[in-house]
Amino acid sequence: MIRFAPASLCLAAALALAPVSALAQQARLTVTGEGSASAVPDMATVSLGVSAQNAEAGVAMDEASRVAAEILSRLDALGIAARDRQTSDIGLQPVWARSDNEDPRITGYEASNQLTVRVRDLATLGDVLASVTEGGANRLAGLSFGLQEPGPVMDAARRDAVADAMARARVLAEAAGVTLGPIVTIAEGGSYEAPSPKMDMARVMSAPVAAGEQSLSASVTVVFALGDVSPE
């Protein structure tokens, strides 16, 4: 037997579903806000190392290892913790001799040992660089500055990004003649740290080092519900 629902029940169901359908079709506004915050760096990361050449590969490796051990010993004396230094690369490659009348030939080998060091007390940065150079370091691949605790600065950048998104949304809604409704979703986009300039060994050793400011940036995407068209 087929039974039909009373008309009043069907009408009640339709009314109950109406707000959901209206919400699904509600106009929305999506904006992206950008924010940034800066702080004075309190840490430096130095990539340094040593290279040694010799006709025999083993002798070149031994010399590079000896100097690397001397550098580590000097870092110990300067109070650089073990967690703040890490071997980043060890290499050995042939040294080629080339001439117009002869085929290339190997005349020796170059061994290298690269070390990454974090200096948490910037007041000692000059002493660290001077000491490792005296100990035999002859390569400086990079020097950059950073923050030991970037969290609070990053949070400030996020707040700035949200404020920017809110301001953009108000302007757009006003220009379009609609009312700005509540926030539907907020999603954080990519965040990044402004790169620090790189310096070569000669420049670092011949002039004072200025840390400047470290800038962190963030972005957020915010979706707003839109209300009725504002009366003109």
Question: What this model shows, in words?
Answer:
The protein starts with 6 loop residues before the first helix and ends with a strand. Helix content is 35%, strand content 38%. Helix 2 (57-77) packs antiparallel against helix 3. With 232 residues, it is α+β, with helices and mostly antiparallel strands. Strands 1, 6, 7 and 8 form a four-stranded antiparallel sheet that branches. The protein has a four-stranded antiparallel sheet with strand order 3-4-2-5, with helices on one face. Residues 1-18 and 197-203 have low confidence and may be disordered.
Largest sheet: 4 strands, antiparallel
In the CATH hierarchy, what is the architecture of the largest domain at level 2? Answer: 2-Layer Sandwich
The fraction of residues in strands falls at 35-45%
CATH class identity of the largest domain: Alpha Beta
The percent of residues in helical segments reads: 25-40%
* First-last Cα distance: 58 Å
Q: What is the count of helical runs? A: 5
The total tally of domains equals: 2
Order of helices and strands: HEEHEEHEHEEHE
CATH superfamily of the largest domain: Protein of unknown function (DUF541), domain 2
Total DSSP E strands: 8
